[in-house]
Amino acid sequence: MGQRQSTAFDPQTANPYPHPMPAPHIKICGLTTAAALEATIAARADYAGLVIFPPSPRHLALKDASALAARAAGRIKLVGLFVDAADSLISDVVTAAKLDVIQLHGKEDPARVAAIRAAFGKPVWKATAVSSADDIVRAERFAGAADLVLFDAKPPKGAAIPGGLGLVFDWTLLAGYKAPLPWGLAGGLSPANVTEAVRATQAPLVDVSSGVESAPGVKDESLITRFCKAARAA
């Protein structure tokens, strides 16, 4: 197939993409170095993700998040990823890193998601774990609370981190999905499978972390470039 043209992504619109599907928007998550950020910008990704969660190998201290954000300012949108975080922590990071989007990857319920959205005045994305069709349906309870739901693979019981584990779920669960709110696809995506994933799901946004790493938390600039090209080739 030829390359599809990207169009503006409006998270307030439930079905913002006309047919045929344009290229998905792309988020590279878990950036920790200037080199990885520069590769993400050069590859024309739409979002750069900063993880604020100490158990993660991608965790950033506040000063490091602020430094990366200063480098990114005006060049790419920044997403801060939090796991069951207190308002005080979110506030510190939103201020220091001038986040464009808050992503919640813990056990936050719709009321908590809505409260964070109201408190900070930023778009809020809610990651939700998927292993069955019931999980897709359950995610719809975030309509009206979150600006976007991000479908990720369910981690193994007892996992120390809720994402970035390289796990894939059954993409056919999203085939023909008519969502009540905007959504994106995560979970085990890589340069090798993202083209297939987008074709199978028609995902309007794809999110990658471990799939563009040479080791946990170590981004590979060439893999970032390849991922973005492959996502747009679907």
If you had to describe this structure to a student in words, what would you say it looks like?
With 234 residues, this protein is an alpha/beta fold. The chain has a single domain, classed as Alpha-Beta Barrel (TIM Barrel), CATH 3.20.20. It is built from 7 helices and 10 strands. The protein has helices at residues 34-42, 62-72, 87-97, 110-120, 133-139, 194-201, 221-232; strands at 25-28, 47-52, 77-82, 101-104, 124-130, 148-153, 183-185, 205-208, 213-215, 218-219. The strands form 2 sheets. Strands 7-6-5-4-3-2-1-8 form an 8-stranded parallel beta sheet. It has a two-stranded antiparallel sheet with strand order 9-10. Strand 3 (77-82), helix 3 (87-97) and strand 4 (101-104) form a beta-alpha-beta unit. Helix 1 (34-42) packs parallel to helix 7 and helix 2 packs parallel to helix 3 (87-97).
